[in-house]
Write a structure and sequence with these properties.
The complex is a heterodimer of chains A (295) and B (690). Chain A is built from nine helices and ten strands. Chain A is an alpha/beta fold. Chain A has a six-stranded mixed β-sheet, sandwiched between helices. In chain A, strands 1-2 form a two-stranded antiparallel sheet. In chain A, helix 3 links the parallel strand 3 and strand 4. In chain A, helix 1 crosses helix 3, helix 1 runs parallel beside helix 9 and helix 3 runs antiparallel to helix 4. Chain B has 690 residues and is an alpha/beta fold. Chain B has five domains: 81 residues, no CATH class; 155 residues, 3-Layer(aba) Sandwich (Rossmann fold), CATH 3.40.50; 95 residues, Immunoglobulins (Immunoglobulin-like); 169 residues, Class I glutamine amidotransferase (GATase) domain (Rossmann fold), CATH 3.40.50.880; 111 residues, Immunoglobulin-like, CATH 2.60.40. Chain B is built from 18 helices and 32 strands. Chain B is elongated and about 155 Å long. The chains are: A alpha/beta (295), B alpha/beta (690). Strand 8 of chain A pairs parallel with strand 2 of chain B.
């Protein structure tokens, strides 16, 4: 299978509905705009107090508390709003690597999550990025937009190199409304992943990273003399690989993943790592169960 | 250094394609990866060691070239002078005498204990295994006769088979002949070494001196070697330890001196140990227990005993020592007692009741009586002829007793008389007699009253046994073909027949006539050659002689010898005699006649005479003679070690194993090459080298 084939067959569509039902069980009790925002606003549900500062609306001062404590406290209420979920799908050439290309896997994951989001009346936007292009699907709402989403995802091809920082720079400038950013990528950026993720985090987006890797990337089965070819740059590297090299490679790869995990943990970024050999629906369920998708 | 196949060195040309192939660049496979960032990071460190990398490349080439060099040298088969010069020629002497049958560890619960010979052969096989490729070995077995089992060879299988072919025997040791042979063989070799595997339980002084000379000269390395014997290295390897043993060292049979019809058996038992031993000797006569004698033997004590009163029919006698010791061979001894025939005695007399009576009462005699007239008309064959007052006109070969033969008439001469009869004597008195002579043993002739006698002049060859003052009265004359006893008294005119001495003298005379050493011929020591004159046997049996004449000239007579352990041999008769030298084990050897021709294709004459031959065979098969073969050696029974050999054992050279050059150099080269290829393969597979 390659990235030119449709990632969404009839089986996939059946699984989408199944995943939605399962997700409803997980979010049982939630109502419209069912994802609670971290932002405080006007609603009937009390959230917290804070001290009054100049310019605040007097209507929200808790006069009872003032009467008792002789202190101006402002009542905060949880704001109910439509959630904007942005899917950032890595469409670089490296995502085409693997027996089951990572890009296909990424498309399926994005489609599944988007379907569930649309079903929950969230606004869904998708951006496919690489160094050369940035295709955007404006935010859509309603379950009926799922085919628009699927068509968009189907049109994405893996080309170009990975440059997270420049891609996210463009994204944050084109996206004024903050929301949940779901990054689906292998994160193989020679410049590193920190600059790009920092860019999103600094823009107050909620960030959820889905790190997709192929088995051969984690445990390469290479022994002997090779010309290694970088699929993004076509750069050649003559190497003679022995078992010690393989072990050393695995150590380096694990260190990279550990660094990524440590970075995300420190910045309260949810991250989930998967291999393409794992069924995508299991990944979806794992995402819901770990709760990171809903902060 | 030389090469057996120097043309093989051209194979070094194979280095050219190896180098050419090495120079060619390696074609690498293209492998797409999603990112190079990990690989770059991985190989970034290794780029700093590019010099080492190049060296590793060179190492790979060098290993391959070395591999080729080793193989080419191996094919060229190099010969190194220092190896060739160090080639040894080993002469291995293995003692397989009777004492080598002694078990090493005497354990009653373990009857299959290893013998000294087994141990010696095992050590010999180890030596064969340790031979270097250029060494040679010759194997000699030794008991009384040395036998070369294989000439010098380095073929291990041949040597092993030669050693395995050495079987235990019950024969005495004679190291000297084997050592002499080994030294003679060693003279022809440049670097000879003699190895002796023995228990050294009996070594002659001469052999010891030879050992001493060889060992001392080898020890003095700086002395200039002048004598060939001095450069022969000698290795004395002792097998076995001093062990207790009790054995029969003598078991001989002879005719009884007292009774010519009986046998006397001398048995000697020796305790060759440092402890007192109690045992019993069981005597079996024709497989039936005949006698049991208990013995208590002090350390080193030797006891002898004589057994007699055996049956007249003869048979096989076996002495078994009822004791378990290290050497079972000398615990059994064998003897054969030939059947005794009745002695035919012819009495020629007109009338002599005393003589008739004394001869007729002896049941071992077959007495015939003839008158002188009858004797003259037709003589009858007899083993002993007694002439009473009669002298025949002719006398053949045989045994004769003349009792007062008449004097020849004047003018006549007695043709058979070798004596001269003189005047008659009146009442002579026997004054002196040979008390030790067999005829007069146990006899007293004092005061014998003699009424009628005469003077006699015996022949010069005669031995006078009894004499009076005037003349001899009894003499014997022994010639190669004739034995004569002459009595110059008329016994009818004396009181001699009334004395006890008379029957004794007559019996003694008959025995004296029949005494011979023939019985010894049927007793041999192990290893001795059994000789048997066929003619002497057949002449005594006229029937067999006649039947031999009926055989065709082309047919060869075969005698079958059955030995102990149900072994049998067909021994051809050559020059009317058989020579049988396979008496290697103690026991009875039975010789039976088999008149079948040696050739497979019987000729017509034989076929025509088939019926007759069958009858002949049946009759011939009944003819047999039994020999008793015994170890009976005190030196073999004493399974200790000979005096004076201990020091030599310590001084003799220790045989080097020489295992380093066990194989030719080319094998080591190939071995190295294989190791090298394995190392190169391993290094390549582990990517230590590219």
């Amino acid at each position: 299978m390659n990235d030119t084939e449709s990632a969404f067959d009839s089986d996939f569509l059946k699984k989408l509905e199944y995943l939605y039902i399962v997700s409803k069980k997980i979010f049982a009790g939630r109502i419209k705009a069912e994802r609670r925002s971290t932002r405080r606003g006007v609603s009937v549900e009390f959230a917290d107090y804070r001290n009054y500062t100049a310019g605040d609306d007097f209507r929200y001062i808790d006069w009872n508390a003032f009467a008792r404590l002789d202190e101006l406290l402002l009542k905060l209420y949880e704001e109910r709003e439509d959630l904007h979920i942005y899917f950032l799908v890595d469409a670089s050439q490296s995502m085409t690597y693997g027996e089951l290309p990572k890009l296909i896997y990424a498309k399926r994951v994005a489609a599944a999550l988007a379907y569930i989001g649309l079903s929950n009346l969230d606004r869904i936007g998708i951006t496919a990025f690489n160094t050369t292009d940035m295709n955007r699907l404006p935010t859509e709402r309603g379950k009926g937009k799922i085919f628009t989403v699927l068509n968009f995802l189907d049109q994405i091809n893996g080309t170009g190199e990975t440059d997270l920082e420049s891609a996210f720079h463009n994204f944050v400038h084109m996206t004024k409304r903050r929301g949940l950013v779901v990054l689906i990528s292998d994160l193989f950026d020679p410049k590193g992943f920190t600059a790009g993720l920092n860019m999103l985090k600094f823009q107050k987006h909620d960030l959820f990273v889905i790190h997709i890797i192929d088995e051969k990337e984690a445990e390469p089965n290479l022994l002997g003399d090779y010309h290694l070819v970088d699929v993004e740059t076509d750069q050649l590297r003559p190497v003679t690989i022995n078992e010690n090299h393989i072990k050393r490679y695995q150590t380096l790869f694990k260190k990279y993943c550990d660094d990524l995990d440590r970075y995300c943990t420190q910045r309260e970024i949810s991250i989930v790592r998967t291999m393409t050999k794992a069924p995508f629906e299991e990944l979806i369920l794992r995402i819901f169960r770990m709760g990171g998708f809903v902060s | 250094m030389n090469f057996l196949t120097p043309t093989s060195l051209f194979l070094f040309g194979l280095a050219i394609p190896i180098i050419a192939l090495y120079i060619l660049k390696l074609r690498r496979r293209r492998e797409p990866v999603s990112t190079l960032m990990f690989w770059e990071q991985l190989f970034k460190e290794r780029q700093t060691t590019s010099l080492f990398q190049r060296l590793k490349h060179l190492l790979s080439l060098l290993l391959q070239l070395l591999f080729l060099a080793l193989l080419v040298f191996a094919v060229a088969r190099p010969q190194f002078a220092f190896i060739t010069k160090s080639a040894r020629q080993l002469i291995l002497i293995i003692d397989h005498s009777a004492s080598m049958n002694a078990v090493l560890n005497l354990n009653p619960d373990n009857p299959s204990s290893e013998s000294r010979l087994d141990s010696a052969k095992q050590q010999a096989l180890e030596m064969v295994k340790g031979l270097r490729f250029m060494d040679e070995m010759s194997v000699i077995s030794c008991n009384t006769r040395p036998v070369i089992h294989t000439p010098f060879t380095n073929h291990q299988k041949t040597l092993r088979e030669a050693i395995e072919s050495i079987k235990p025997t019950d024969v005495k040791t004679d190291l000297k002949s084997a050592v002499d042979l080994a030294f003679d063989v060693a003279q022809t070799k440049p670097n000879p070494e003699i190895v002796i595997l023995s228990d050294f339980q009996s070594v002659s002084e001469e052999t010891l001196e030879k050992f001493q000379k060889s060992i001392q000269q080898n020890a003095a390395e700086e002395e200039e070697i002048q004598d060939q014997i001095e450069k022969i290295k000698l290795h004395l390897i002792r097998v076995g330890e001093d062990t207790d043993n009790v054995g029969i060292t003598q078991f001989r049979v002879r005719k009884s001196i007292v009774n010519a019809f009986d046998y006397e058996t001398l048995l000697t038992v020796v305790n060759a140990s440092n402890k007192e031993k109690k045992c019993s000797v069981e005597l079996y006569f024709n497989e039936s227990l005949f006698d049991v004698r208990p013995y208590t033997l002090a350390p080193g004590e030797k006891k002898s005993e004589i057994f007699s009163n055996f049956t007249f029919e003869g048979g096989e006698l076996k002495a078994v020592l009822d004791i378990t010791d290290a050497l079972p061979t000398d615990n059994v001894a064998y003897a054969t007692l030939p059947k005794r025939e009745l002695i035919s005695v012819l009495l020629v007399t007109n009338e002599n009741p005393f003589l008739q009576k004394v001869l007729s009462v002896d049941e071992k005699l077959n007495l015939s009586i003839m008158t002188p007239a009858e004797y003259e008309s037709g003589a009858k064959d007899a083993q002993v002829v007694v002439f009473d007052r009669f002298s025949p006109t002719t006398l053949g070969d045989g045994n004769y007793m003349f009792i007062y033969p008449p004097k020849a008439n004047e003018g006549e001469t007695n043709p058979v008389a070798t004596w001269n009869i003189g005047e008659a004597l009146e009442t002579p008195i026997i004054t002196d007699w040979e008390r030790t002579h067999p005829i007069l043993r146990h006899v007293h002739l004092e005061n014998v009253l003699i009424g009628e006698a005469y003077e006699v002049t015996p022949p010069s060859t005669a031995q006078i046994l009894a004499r009076s003052f005037e003349s001899p009265v009894l003499f014997v004359d022994v010639t190669p073909k004739r034995k004569i006893v002459f009595a110059a008294i008329n016994i009818l005119e004396s009181d001699l027949p009334l004395r006890i001495a008379f029957p004794v003298i007559i019996a003694n005379t008959i025995q004296w006539f029949q005494q011979s050493e023939g019985i010894q011929e049927y007793h041999l020591h192990t290893g001795e050659v059994l000789r048997y004159k066929v003619d002497s046997q057949t002449n005594s049996d006229a029937q067999i002689n006649r039947e031999e004449d009926t055989l065709s000239e082309n047919s060869q007579k075969i005698l079958k010898v059955n030995g102990p352990g149900e072994k049998s041999w067909d021994v051809p008769v050559e020059n009317d005699e058989i020579l049988f030298d396979q008496t290697l084990h103690a026991g009875f050897y039975e010789l039976t006649f088999s008149d079948k021709p040696a050739a497979d294709n019987e000729d017509e004459t034989t076929i025509n005479n088939e019926n007759e031959s069958t009858n002949d065979n049946e009759e011939a098969d009944e003819q047999k003679q039994v020999w008793a073969v015994n170890l009976a050696s005190e030196t073999e029974s004493n399974i200790g070690i000979a005096e004076g050999i201990e020091d030599l054992l310590a001084e003799s050279d220790v045989l080097g194993s020489g295992s380093f050059f066990r194989y030719p150099p080319w094998i080591y080269l190939v071995f190295l090459a294989v190791i090298l290829s394995v190392v190169e393969w391993f290094l390549y597979q582990r990517r230590k080298i590219d």
